[in-house]
Amino acid sequence: MRFExxxxxxxxxxxxxxxxxxxxxxPCLIGRDELERxxxxxxxxxxxxxxxxxxxxxxxxxxxxxxxxxIYYPILPTKNAFLYILASANQYLGDYRTLSKAxxxxxxxxxxxxxxxxxxxxxPENVSIFLFYGVDLFDDIYGKISALRGVxxxxxxxxxxxxxxxxxxxCPECLGRSPEEMKRFSKRERIDFLKSxxxxxxxxxxxxxxxxxxKENIREYVEKQCRSSPWLTALLRIVRDDFAEKRSPLFRKTxxxxxxxxxxxxxxxxxxxRRVMERYEKPDLDTLLILPCSARKPYSLSLSHKKILxxxxxxxxxxxxxxxxxxxxxxxxxxxxxxxxSHYDIPVTGRWVEEEKDWAKNCLKxxxxxxxxxxxxxxxxxxxxxxxxxxxxxxxxxxxxxxEDGVTGKRSLENLGEVISGxxxxxxxxxxxxxxxxxxxxxxxxxxxxxxxxxxxxxxxxRGRYPKMxxxxxxxxxxxxxxxxxxxxxxxxxxxKIKRNSDDYSVEIDDFVPTxxxxxxxxxxxxxxxxxNDIVIFEGKRSFGIGRAxxxxxxxxxxxxGSAIRVESVKVK
Length: 573
Fold this sequence. Notes:
Layout: E1 2-9, E2 12-19, E3 22-26, E4 28-29, H1 32-36, H2 51-56, E5 83-85, H3 96-109, E6 115-118, H4 127-132, E7 137-138, H5 141-148, E8 151-154, E9 157-160, H6 179-182, H7 187-214, H8 218-225, H9 230-237, H10 241-245, E10 256-257, H11 267-279, E11 287-292, H12 303-312, E12 319-325, E13 329-332, E14 344-345, H13 354-370, E15 375-378, H14 382-395, E16 399-401, H15 410-421, H16 431-447, H17 449-455, E17 460-463, E18 470-473, E19 476-482, E20 487-490, H18 492-499, E21 506-509, E22 518-519, E23 523-526, E24 535-539, E25 543-549, H19 553-558, E26 563-572
Parallel strand pairs: 4-7, 5-6, 6-7, 10-14, 11-12, 11-15, 15-16, 21-24
Antiparallel strand pairs: 1-2, 2-3, 8-9, 12-13, 17-18, 18-19, 19-20, 21-23, 22-26, 24-25, 25-26
């Protein structure tokens, strides 16, 4: 028996489970045949378990239909199994706090390359949220129990068979049949029909979610799907930040669609705001210009921002620009090509919910308390202006407002030009300095201020037209902007500059020269701060190179299977 994670989408994952010579794609359903081929340890009481864990992971109860014969209690680090089972989870249906706590505690304690099996609980309605929590394997027991109760399962919940007037499904059982026809069936035949349909519906939902995980859209789907039930919505809202953060990438190719209230709580949004506040430092300029966001990314390539930049013209060297937006809060211009600022979309209606307004207001207020300016110009209207007005009062600095007839209206742009022409001109930034500052800000955001300082020390110049920029130290290229990922890519020369003074984002590998991926079994140690898709530096006795992480640093250390790093460049020592 063997399990390997092949792909991750934050907390959810795709993998392969091999049993008895057969390979099964996960997530998936398993049945009695698969269970009988497993070596399952008998249950025994473990005295040294904490009482709260015993309560959450109640010992399994067997029955004739299904015998849940074992659980590896994940609190014990001595067990290294391919599969762990959370038995009796179905007794916590509706108890979202206990179930969430148990799932996250299991995820934190079992090996990252072990599968998690959740029996007797999965339905077409709830299986996506459990996949989001990192569960890999399910059975169809809940569907069978529902069939015995006369319940027809769908992604929107369960319906009594006698209440249906038509079947909203085209599975082999439902196609060409009607609920009226079912009335002529015996009770046994109706149960068999429901068992079969419920399994088809569950399998179809799992296949759909597999596609969404591969497309890195599981979060968007779960935000939609959880709406069918208050307890499922609660189950999404109480995911711990640290549980999500240690499994989620800071950079990726896929767009983030912020369509619901829950999007404000996405770890990508929180990570971005945290790094802006902790790692970003404004340029040495006295005047701040606050602008609204645009549909096109990066903002500076949008039609509205191009009109504004045309007005700034020669005065732009004296101005620092920050974009006010939901759900990210504030985006300094230098970070507009960083994920997720470069890869998100929202429904634009002109209406903001109070939580959105409060989040943006608090982000702007915290930014202005840390980064001080002598004057602030707010070229915004509508809700953006309301937010600025509130922040203005909170920090005690009077803003200058320039919009009269919309952000790109003639009078508004004329007002902006007039105000800009009169700003203080003691401090300025040339076009070349602006590009270097953008690269420095991105490097600080991605690697931290100290590494950015080491990386960009010396005779560093930035070439290329914004945003397709490349940095050179003398004649040696050290990094370039990777637009698809919204990040910076290092070269070997850039990595060598970093390694002189830091082991951050570094992985120690065994004595070999990788020709393809570096697998977890070949990793000796890793920076636990590494997240999937981070650019990392790997080094062994015979090789030095750079690559993109395919799992988190803590997973590289604990896992024995799976690809850890996709090699970009390697140098033989």
